[in-house]
Task: structure prediction
Amino acid sequence: MHDPNPARPFGRFTVSSLLSSGVDLAAFAVLCRLLEGPLPTGAAILAATVAARVLSSLVNYLLNYFLVFHSKASYGRSAGLYAGITVGKTLCSALLVAAAAGALPALPRLAAKIPVDVLLFFVNYLLQKRFVY
Result:
Protein backbone atom coordinates (compact mmCIF):
# COMPACT_ATOMS: atom_id res chain seq x y z
CA MET A 1 0.00 0.00 0.00
CA HIS A 2 1.55 3.28 -1.09
CA ASP A 3 1.09 6.17 1.30
CA PRO A 4 0.72 9.48 -0.60
CA ASN A 5 2.25 11.33 2.37
CA PRO A 6 5.90 10.16 2.65
CA ALA A 7 6.21 11.69 6.14
CA ARG A 8 3.62 9.29 7.59
CA PRO A 9 5.70 6.09 7.50
CA PHE A 10 8.67 7.92 9.01
CA GLY A 11 6.47 9.35 11.77
CA ARG A 12 5.06 5.90 12.50
CA PHE A 13 8.60 4.48 12.42
CA THR A 14 9.65 7.06 15.01
CA VAL A 15 6.71 6.21 17.29
CA SER A 16 7.39 2.48 16.85
CA SER A 17 11.03 3.03 17.80
CA LEU A 18 10.09 5.04 20.89
CA LEU A 19 7.58 2.41 22.03
CA SER A 20 10.13 -0.33 21.49
CA SER A 21 12.70 1.62 23.49
CA GLY A 22 10.18 1.83 26.31
CA VAL A 23 9.68 -1.94 26.17
CA ASP A 24 13.45 -2.41 26.22
CA LEU A 25 13.93 -0.19 29.27
CA ALA A 26 10.96 -1.62 31.18
CA ALA A 27 11.92 -5.23 30.46
CA PHE A 28 15.53 -4.50 31.42
CA ALA A 29 14.46 -2.98 34.74
CA VAL A 30 12.10 -5.86 35.58
CA LEU A 31 14.58 -8.54 34.54
CA CYS A 32 17.41 -6.97 36.53
CA ARG A 33 15.23 -7.05 39.66
CA LEU A 34 14.29 -10.68 39.04
CA LEU A 35 17.77 -11.91 38.13
CA GLU A 36 20.08 -9.99 40.48
CA GLY A 37 19.33 -12.34 43.38
CA PRO A 38 19.86 -15.68 41.67
CA LEU A 39 22.72 -14.45 39.43
CA PRO A 40 25.83 -12.35 40.06
CA THR A 41 25.27 -8.69 39.16
CA GLY A 42 27.26 -8.77 35.91
CA ALA A 43 25.54 -11.91 34.67
CA ALA A 44 22.13 -10.51 35.63
CA ILE A 45 22.80 -7.29 33.70
CA LEU A 46 24.02 -9.19 30.65
CA ALA A 47 21.05 -11.58 30.67
CA ALA A 48 18.57 -8.73 31.26
CA THR A 49 20.11 -6.67 28.46
CA VAL A 50 19.98 -9.49 25.92
CA ALA A 51 16.47 -10.64 26.86
CA ALA A 52 15.10 -7.08 26.89
CA ARG A 53 16.69 -6.33 23.52
CA VAL A 54 15.26 -9.51 21.98
CA LEU A 55 11.79 -8.68 23.32
CA SER A 56 11.92 -5.03 22.21
CA SER A 57 13.25 -6.03 18.78
CA LEU A 58 10.34 -8.46 18.34
CA VAL A 59 7.88 -5.72 19.32
CA ASN A 60 9.59 -3.29 16.95
CA TYR A 61 9.61 -5.78 14.07
CA LEU A 62 5.90 -6.52 14.48
CA LEU A 63 4.93 -2.83 14.80
CA ASN A 64 6.98 -1.99 11.72
CA TYR A 65 5.64 -4.95 9.75
CA PHE A 66 1.96 -4.33 10.43
CA LEU A 67 1.58 -0.64 11.31
CA VAL A 68 4.51 1.29 9.88
CA PHE A 69 5.12 -0.27 6.47
CA HIS A 70 1.94 -2.39 6.07
CA SER A 71 4.19 -5.11 4.70
CA LYS A 72 3.20 -8.02 2.51
CA ALA A 73 6.72 -9.52 2.59
CA SER A 74 7.16 -13.07 3.88
CA TYR A 75 7.73 -13.23 7.63
CA GLY A 76 10.84 -15.41 7.39
CA ARG A 77 12.61 -13.22 4.83
CA SER A 78 11.71 -9.92 6.45
CA ALA A 79 12.52 -11.15 9.98
CA GLY A 80 15.92 -12.41 8.82
CA LEU A 81 16.74 -9.13 7.13
CA TYR A 82 15.47 -7.17 10.13
CA ALA A 83 17.67 -9.23 12.48
CA GLY A 84 20.69 -8.71 10.25
CA ILE A 85 20.17 -4.97 10.09
CA THR A 86 19.61 -4.81 13.85
CA VAL A 87 22.83 -6.69 14.60
CA GLY A 88 24.72 -4.59 12.04
CA LYS A 89 23.35 -1.37 13.50
CA THR A 90 24.39 -2.43 17.00
CA LEU A 91 27.92 -3.28 15.84
CA CYS A 92 28.22 -0.02 13.88
CA SER A 93 27.10 1.93 16.93
CA ALA A 94 29.67 0.24 19.16
CA LEU A 95 32.50 0.68 16.62
CA LEU A 96 31.69 4.31 15.81
CA VAL A 97 31.30 5.29 19.46
CA ALA A 98 34.57 3.54 20.32
CA ALA A 99 36.31 5.31 17.41
CA ALA A 100 34.97 8.70 18.51
CA ALA A 101 36.04 8.00 22.10
CA GLY A 102 39.50 7.00 20.88
CA ALA A 103 39.85 10.08 18.67
CA LEU A 104 38.49 12.46 21.31
CA PRO A 105 39.33 10.99 24.74
CA ALA A 106 37.83 13.97 26.61
CA LEU A 107 34.46 13.48 24.90
CA PRO A 108 31.92 11.82 27.23
CA ARG A 109 30.78 8.46 25.86
CA LEU A 110 27.15 9.54 25.82
CA ALA A 111 28.08 12.65 23.82
CA ALA A 112 29.64 10.35 21.23
CA LYS A 113 26.78 7.84 21.26
CA ILE A 114 23.88 10.23 20.74
CA PRO A 115 24.85 11.60 17.30
CA VAL A 116 26.01 8.16 16.15
CA ASP A 117 22.70 6.56 17.10
CA VAL A 118 20.68 9.42 15.59
CA LEU A 119 22.51 8.93 12.29
CA LEU A 120 21.99 5.16 12.51
CA PHE A 121 18.28 5.71 13.20
CA PHE A 122 17.88 7.37 9.78
CA VAL A 123 20.02 4.73 8.07
CA ASN A 124 17.98 2.03 9.80
CA TYR A 125 14.74 3.54 8.51
CA LEU A 126 16.02 3.66 4.94
CA LEU A 127 17.36 0.09 5.06
CA GLN A 128 14.17 -1.31 6.55
CA LYS A 129 11.98 0.59 4.09
CA ARG A 130 14.03 -0.54 1.11
CA PHE A 131 15.01 -4.12 2.00
CA VAL A 132 12.95 -5.52 4.87
CA TYR A 133 9.34 -4.55 4.32
